[in-house]
């Protein structure tokens, strides 16, 4: 049986054909996931990125027939989504840094309570991190050091630092620390 071309699948997708979408998804997920995994090193995030790329394709299916080459399109979309995630993480580190470490004096009693609760949760979350992970999170948020700078200071590879930082920030999120600073 002859395989349907990418262009035919895109044409059918633009007409709302779910089977064509499923076929394209099954065709490209096995190559897209390892690409993202090579730069991300976080299984859950990799899966999310791949899913979001295909969700966006489906949401904009009326324009799918305008895509000339599927593989480069999907890889670029995945790369852009990953870069957006990095920017989001940097913004979250900045928020933590600004609120946790700069001793902002909230104006209303409600803001003061929220701030104190956020500080308590932040300190609790930091105290539960391993010493190395805590050091990396603090270097990233307090000192705003780059991954390369942290890597050279702690004597670990950039990938190890990135992984420990991501895990540390994920734990901060787990304790819902971020919601107190938005």
Describe this structure in words.
Mean pLDDT is 81; it is low at 177-182. It contains eight helices and no strands. Helix 2 (18-40) runs antiparallel to helix 3 (43-59), helix 3 packs across helix 4 and helix 6 (131-141) crosses helix 8. The chain has 182 residues and is mainly alpha-helical. Helix content is 75%, strand content 0%. It is elongated, with a radius of gyration of 21 Å. It has two domains: 6-84, Rna Polymerase Sigma Factor, Chain: A (Orthogonal Bundle), CATH 1.10.1740.10; 103-181, Arc Repressor Mutant, subunit A (Orthogonal Bundle). Pfam families: Sigma70_r2 (PF04542), Sigma70_r4_2 (PF08281). Belongs to the sigma-70 factor family. ECF subfamily. InterPro entries: RNA_pol_sigma-70-like (IPR039425), RNA_pol_sigma-70_dom (IPR014284), RNA_pol_sigma70_r2 (IPR007627), RNA_pol_sigma70_r4_t2 (IPR013249), RNA_pol_sigma_r2 (IPR013325), RNA_pol_sigma_r3/r4-like (IPR013324), WH-like_DNA-bd_sf (IPR036388). Keywords: DNA-binding, Sigma factor, Transcription, Transcription regulation. Residues 124-171 form the RNA polymerase sigma factor 70 region 4 type domain.
